[in-house]
Amino acid sequence: MRPPRARTWGRVGCTPVVRVRCRGSGRVSMAGMACYKAGHRSRMIYGFRVHRGRKGERKTFTWQDYRDLILRARAQLGGPVVLVSDNLSTHLMPPMKEFIAANEEWLTVFQLPSYAPDLNPQEGI
User: Fold this and answer.
1) How many CB atoms lie within 10 A of CB 61?
2) CA 121 to chain CA centroid, nearest Å
3) Which residues have CB under 8 Å from 10's CB, separation 6+?
4) Second label for 25, Cα 20 to 30 Å away, from 16, 81, 119, 124?
5) Calpha distance 67→73 (Å, rounded)
6) pLDDT for 7 beyond 70
7) What's the pLDDT band for 112 if we cut at 50, 70, 90?
């Protein structure tokens, strides 16, 4: 991320120089879903978390944050959700698995394999 651009006025021919201090303002974690629905435009549903380095502040997403993102996607899309998930440890936690099992009438989850060289065209088979 880049610092905001500072602007000011100056005499004609003399470009003013303004210092912009870019102190560490924290860390941003983002999770998103690319959503597709037949007959509609694709959309991106996302959530982010800002960590400013305060004591006790969580840096990363919890399983509740991912659950809320899935529920937001269902509310915005207005129908069943098919989710392709990777092997992030938060996605594999028991409470998340319980949430998926409790909502299997509208939520279908496909778990990607942990390693699949046949899906990577760059690797020689």
Assistant:
1) 19
2) 26
3) 16
4) 16
5) 10
6) no
7) confident
Partners of residue 123 on adjacent β-strands: none
Which residues neighbour 25 within 8 Å (Cβ) at sequence distance 6 or greater?
A: 52
Express the helix, strand and coil content of the chain in percent, nearest 5 each.
25, 20, 55
- Residue extents of the structural domains in the chain: 27-119
First to last CA, the chain: 38
Distance of CA 36 to the CA centre of its chain: 16
Sign of the dihedral through C-alpha 50, 56, 61, 67: negative
